[in-house]
Amino acid sequence: MKAFVLKEPGVVGWYDAPEPKLTPYGAILEPVAVTPCSSDVHTVFGGGSRKAPNLILGHECVARILETGDMVQDFVPGEVVAVPAITPDWRAKAIQEGNDRHASAPFSGHQLGRTQPGVFAEKFLIPDADTTLAKIPDGVTLEQALMCVDVVTTGFTGAEYADIKIGDTVVVMGIGPIGLMAVEGARHLGAARIIAVGTRPICRQLAAEFGATDIISYKDGDVTEQVLSMTGGVGADSVIICGGGDEVFTQAVDMVRYGTGTISNVNYYGGTGMLGFPKFSGGRGMAGKTIHTELAKGGRARIERLLAMVKYGRIDPQKLVTHHLSGLDKVEDALYMMKEKPEDLVKVMVTI
């Protein structure tokens, strides 16, 4: 079957891949709509752990079920479903300890397009359909469902781990698609003031629409100094890191308040080495600042909850889809669009 793969670091292309084999609890699906992620860009161009030869890429997908295994109870061939980007092995022992994203090994929840074949192919396998696939409610569009499988859940994960309380001041660093959904999540969790940090005009416009009360940029001066000035020197109650280089981690420690401040990181830092923890703003190790470093929440129940938020009009992530392409062969173009980030791009959807 036709599949878009990582041939070697920095090199992608098309490959005649073997078709997936059905498992008792699994389902074989064909993609209906997909979108490349910045994580796909990191996988291809950013190094990281070594990947299998001709690894099929992709983990953001809405798909049609073609076949189901004998043990599948809740899904049938023909259904169009949302496929979560994070697909934990819900039968792993550590799941019972609450470790759903790193149960079997580090990043074991992130399997599609990483340790198992992804969704950029004519067909793909989900090994455990009932615990993974999400039913799409009536009235939810393809664009909305597609954004929920990764972008919405990642942004909301950032907001949830930021320990936001009613009336808080929250900084969101990096307002690409993930950061925009972190803004939306912070608003829903009760933040009063949301300071979005970003420069691209389309993202600044959408940040305001999703709930940002203030939008700042490094082009206007040091970001930490701007936040401290805006908060009377106290700092933000929470900082959600959704983008940027290694320096943003240090800046987050600098700008979050002492005693009760929380930093929630869903940002990916490429390469190796160390992230800087500033001694002074870190209270020389005693500042009372909490740091969470989180992979997005996944699984069926999570995505169905987010789809319910869409169904009942609480969120509308369709605004994130700024570009449309058609045909599986356009996945390659879409990947390079996400790499190059044209001024008017947030997310690109490829309809198969």
UniProtKB/TrEMBL annotation:
Keyword Phosphoprotein included in the entry's annotation: no
Pfam families: ADH_N (PF08240), ADH_zinc_N (PF00107)
GO function terms (MF aspect): metal ion binding
Domain Alcohol dehydrogenase-like N-terminal: 29-138
Span of domain Alcohol dehydrogenase-like C-terminal: 177-266
UniProtKB keywords: Metal-binding, Zinc
Cofactor(s) in the UniProt record: Zn(2+)
Membership in a protein family: Belongs to the zinc-containing alcohol dehydrogenase family.
PANTHER family from the UniProt entry: NADP-DEPENDENT ISOPROPANOL DEHYDROGENASE, ZINC-TYPE ALCOHOL DEHYDROGENASE-LIKE
Name of the featured protein: Zinc-binding dehydrogenase
